[in-house]
Structure formats: structure tokens, C-alpha cells
Amino acid sequence: MDKRPSPGYLGDIETLLKRYASGELTPSRMVETVHRHIRNNDNSAWISIMPLEALRQYASAMEARAAEMDALPLYGIPFAIKDNIDLAGLPTTAACPAYAYTPQKNATVVQRLIDAGAIPIGKTNLDQFATGLNGTRSPYGACQNAFNPDYISGGSSSGSAVALAKGMVCFSLGTDTAGSGRVPAAFNNLIGYKPTRGWLSTRGVVPACRSLDCVSIFAFTATDARRILEVSAGYDEEDVYSRQRKEHVFDFSISGRRFRFGVPRQHQLQFFGNQDAARLFGRAVASMEALGGTAAEIDFAPFLETARLLYEGPWVAERYAAIRDFFDSHSDQVVAPVREIIGGANRYSAADACEGEYELRRLKRETERIWTEAKVDCLLTPTAGTIYTIRAMQQDPVRLNANLGYYTNFVNLLDYSAVAVPAGFQNDGLPFGITLVAQAHRDIPLLHLAERLQQTHALPLGATGMTLQKPSSPQRPSTPLPNDSSKLTGCASRQPGWVRVAVCGAHLSGLPLNGELTGRNGRLVTKTTTSSDYKLYALPGGPPHRPGLVHVEANEPGTSIDVEVWEMPEREFGGFVAGIPVPLGIGTITLASGDAVQGFLCERYAIAGAIDISRYGGWPSYLSSRVLPETLTDR
Which residues contact 293 (CB under 8 A, 6 or more apart)? Predict the structure, then answer.
């Protein structure tokens, strides 16, 4: 098989944005290329695509806003949508033609992506009613693996994974109840991000298990997944399962910081006879250790008990509830074994549902104890222990599908977030992937860790053969931000729900603690200086060495000091401030523009014996004038 990248591949989001910015490509030319690419491929990935004329209209609308490119974080970025998520004007089938309806409105998450500049290309194949982890349970055909058409693609979000892996789009949407956003990622060499339940609205999504369902994101890179999250997430008043995001106090993913990760005990690891997968998982453990992690074996049994509840407990009845009216009158239109799985709901009573909830509560308490006693920040597991041919899966659909869910089925029941990460290739050329799992609302640290791990493995993007690029820094912001202090219009101009903070030491871009800002979803607003009535001191002590910014007294000479103004969600600010040690604290700083922002200040008592370094104009200039340890910090 020729693995050289095709010149028609679009690559990751940052790559395509750079091509737009340089004029090398336009959205109009892009949609023509993508439409042709899809028409020339027959791998059962797509159920329907937008008419070419409609795609041209989307592209023209973007080109009319080319001057606003920096204000549109997904300007002209093509994406695919799993066909249980509504896209206005195209039928939503859930891979069941008799169930199809044509929505008049986009799903909430789709609308947010379009508002950010993304272009929806079409709807992708899936295991019918999102019931399965293999990609063969569809009347539209078994979806073929992007690397070897004899093998399964994984499911249920099969088409979304293959369409991306084949380079037809730059990202895609799936759903994930039991692992449907992670298993296809592993089998097609992609990032598969399953957010904390409720972070992405499920309004406009055909439910599988409504209380557990998540919209998931397939991307070439974890950086792309984080960008898409920032655009698509948000509380939805009309979605009863939507949740407000909570702050994460400790970002275990920051470079140089030690963390602990849990792995199943050796006898609890299952690779179903696949020695290649076992070897690659061992290598992934070593990679995590090289990033500063310490592996801790945990008892995986309670997690496996939880996993069994999903298909061997009353949650099967929730799948029936999702399509009850349709199933009661059209069960003959549902494919086997989906029909048998959903039809099995009649085995469970209301009492069974209560007992199932009691059992889940017990297991939640038991697994929480494991996290606490092992003192782990995240879990590391294979995404799937092995992969099967399409033929083998069709011959033994229930048992082999259950094997695929061994490491995935517990995640939503226990309210965790997870990121599937490519981790190498088997000797037969098929991909292998691992999954990072964290407790709810720790998605951002998890994505940061996935970025670092992905860079360590440095695998090509999907099946395109394109090289993984080093992430740009700082990341392109998701909303328009000023480039200099003249464009700041005071603290009142900040976006609702965000707070600005000026930093002058190791939180500056490229310095050791900058990750404590980016890890809290922070983004750079501007590089500027303070007003001319400040002094900067190198505080005594260390390592670590620390600078201190002080406002001068009346009639005391001062100078302007270099600072960066960052902004972060208000929900993150309290945890950020709580970690600041004395004699530093947060106070009001006046910028050269006259604007006032919150920022790092130092208590005056602490400058006794400190070195006045104001003449250097800032901490980086002072550092460059001296030979100091790499651990310099302002904390």
C-alpha cells in the first residue's frame, strides 16, 4: 500500500488555517477538493453529503468574511457529523432508513461550530442507533478500516473516524456512550476525545442512553481537539443533562511536574491473544514515565464490574426508551444484533432499574477509594485489547463486540472524561491506541497530557501519511484578541465570565509556569508594559528564584516593566490564586495604556535584601543577562 501523503489532504486545523492565511488555498477550492475526494472513495464512511452548491455557499460566506479570519477559530474548516446528530436540511437516519427525519435546526454543538466558521460536509455511517463498537451494524454497509479494508473501523462512530483518517475533513463529531468515540479513534490512528458528561450539549442528538450520552470529537491532534472543545462546549439551558464546567485545581499535565497514573494489574490486562498490542501498551507506559509519570498498579475489578452494567444491566432499557415508539412498530427495520439488544429491555423491571442504580452507587464509592488510595491523577489503559476482521466480527458479533468494550464501557457510568491517543502500529500495519482517563471536569489537563504523549510518539496523522507538526505557541486564540495595549479598553471590556491577569515572571510565554495559565484554559491577550511607576526586584532565596513587582511610593522614581496580560475563565481564577505563595499576591496593576487589570504584586516587606532589577525592564531580560538554573520561577 502506498503510504505517501496525497497532495489533496488538508491536514490538521492549524495547517489548513495557515494555507488560507497565505492565500495558497481558499474555502471554495477546499470544498471542491473535498467533494471530489468523497465521491472517489467507497468505504461506507458516508451516509449523505451536502450538495456541492450548498458547500459552495458556505465557502463563499467564509470568503466574504476573510478580513475576520482571526475572529473565526474554525474559518473554513471542513468537518463530518455522525448521522445521529442533526444537520439542518440533511436527513438524520441513525443508520436506520425507516427512522429517518429531516431536521429544520442544527444540533446545538453543530450550530456552535458553524458559527465559529466550520463547514459541515455531511453525515457519516454508524452502528445502527449507536449500538455497537465495531462499525459493521449498518444497512449502509460495514465501515472499512482506513488502513486495511478487511478489518473493522470500530464503532459506533465508524464513518466519522474513517472520513477523518482518510483526510476528507479536518475533524469530525461522534457520540460516545460505551466507547464509540474512542475505539474508532484507536483503530484509525486518531485522537478521540470524550468530554465530561454534559460539557457538550446533546440537544439535537438521537439518544442511545440519554443519561450517559456524550458528543465526542475526533481530531488529528489533541491540540485540535482542545480548540474544537473551546468552540463547541457551553451550558445549554434547553438540555436537561447539560452541566456547568468546574475548575480543575491541579494540572497534572504540566511539563516538568510529576504525576501518578494508574494501570490495571498485570493479570487484569486483556489483549485477547494480541501480543503486538501488549508490547505497544508496555511502550506507552514507558512513554508516560518519560513524561514525568509514575505508574501505580490498581485493582481494575470494580471498573470491570461497572462496565458490565451497561449491557448486562437495566441500562439496556434506556436504549429501548430512546426509540420506544419506533421500535414497537418497526422492530423489523432494526438490524441484528441491535434488534436483539434493544428488545432485551423487556427482561428488566422498575425494581431492576433501582437495584442497578444502587449497584452503580456502590461501585462509584469503591472506585473513588481506589483513586484516593493509589493517589493517581489519571488512568492509562489500552483503548481496545485487540482488533478483528469484518468477517470475524460478523460471525461472532456479540462476544467480540464485548471484548472491544473491556476498557471503555465503565467510563460514562462513572462520570469520567477520556482521551484516546495513537500509540503505535502493530507488525501488520494496523494502529494501536491507548486511553487516558480522568475524573469529571479534568478534561483540560487530560488533553494537555495527550498533546505531550502524542508529540512523544510522533506518529503520522490518521492514514494520510502527513507528519505530526510541533504545536505552535501560543495557540491561536478562539476569539479575537488585541495585539497591543492600545486596543485594550479596560477591565470592563473583557468577555463575560472571563477575568484578566497581568503576569511578569515565570508565567510569561515560554517560561516554566506558563502552563498554569494555559492549563486553566487561559489565553494571551497582549504583551505590554506597566505604567512608569513600578519597580521589579529579584527576591532573595532560591532556587527557585522569584521576581517581585512593586508599586513605588509617592515621589519615588519608577519605570515601566514588561508584562503579559492573559485571560482565563472566572471559574478557574480562584484555584489559580489559591496556589500563589507569599510574599506574592494578586492586586491591581496599571498598564501603560492607563487600563487597570489584576496582576502579580509583591509585599513591600519582601524587597529588603532583594536586588532592584528594574533597569532590565522585565524578568526575561534580567534572566538573559545572568546564568541561572533552568528552574527559575516567580513562585
Answer: 258, 259, 260, 261
Beta carbons within 10 angstroms of residue 332's beta carbon: 7
pLDDT at residue number 217: 98
Q: Which one-letter amino acid corresponds to residue 491?
A: C
Asked whether 535 and 604 are in contact (CB, 8 A), the reply is no
**How confident is residue 190, by pLDDT bands cut at 50, 70 and 90?**
very high
Render 354-374 in DSSP notation, one character per residue. Answer: HHHHHHHHHHHHHHHHHHHHH
Question: Which one-letter DSSP state was computed for residue 256?
Answer: T
Residue type, 82: K
DSSP letter, residue 620: H
At CB < 8 A and 24+ separation, what contacts does 275-284 make? 276/426, 276/427, 276/428, 276/432, 277/382, 277/385, 277/386, 277/426, 277/432, 280/423, 280/424, 280/426, 280/432, 281/382, 281/423, 281/432, 281/434, 283/423, 283/424, 284/380, 284/423, 284/424, 284/434, 284/453
Q: Is the omega angle on the peptide bond into residue 543 within 30 degrees of 0, that is, cis?
A: yes
User: Which among 180, 287, 478, 485 is annotated as catalytic?
Assistant: 180
Q: How far apart, in whole angstroms, are the C-alpha atoms of residue 147 and residue 276? A: 16
| Nine-digit cell string for 265 | 494489574
Strand partners, 85: 205
Q: How far apart are CA 228 and CA 112, in angstroms?
A: 10
The count of other CB atoms within 10 Å of the CB of residue 410 is 26
Nearest to 520 by CA among 443, 415, 418, 416: 443
Decide if 180 is catalytic. Answer: yes
Whole-number Å distance between alpha carbons of 157 and 80: 11
Q: What is the pLDDT of residues 547-590, one digit of tens each?
A: 999 999 888 899 999 999 998 888 788 778 877 887 888 888 99
Closest C-alpha to 78, from 130, 143, 146, 8: 8
Contacting residues for 20 by C-beta, under 8 A, at least 6 apart: 26, 27, 69, 75, 76
- Tally Cβ neighbours within 10 Å of residue 167: 24
Q: Is the pLDDT of residue 185 over 50?
A: yes
d(CA 516, CA 414): 27
Report CA-CA distances (Å) from 34 to 8, 40, 79, 167, 228: 8, 10, 10, 9, 20
> Which candidate in 82, 123, 166, 535 is catalytic?
82
**What does the pLDDT average to over 294-321?**
96
Distance CA 129, CA 334 (A): 9
* Beta strand ranges found along 289-410 (DSSP E): 293-298, 378-382
CA distance 203 to 92: 14
User: 3-class SS at 390?
Assistant: helix
User: For residue 192, how many other CB atoms are within 10 A of its CB?
Assistant: 34
Radius of gyration of the chain (CA): 26
Q: How wide is the angle at C-alpha 166 spanned by C-alphas 161 and 168, nearest 5°?
A: 90
Active-site residue, selected from the candidate residues 44, 138, 153, 156: 156
Q: Closest by alpha carbon to 246, among 575, 620, 515?
A: 575
Judge residue 28's burial from the number of C-beta atoms within 10 Å of its C-beta, 0-12 exposed, 13-18 middle, 19 or more buried: middle
**Count of beta carbons in the 10 Å neighbourhood of residue 200:** 29
pTM score over 0.70: yes
Give the DSSP letter of residue 572: H
Q: Report the alpha-carbon distance of residue 623 to residue 98 in Å, rounded.
A: 68
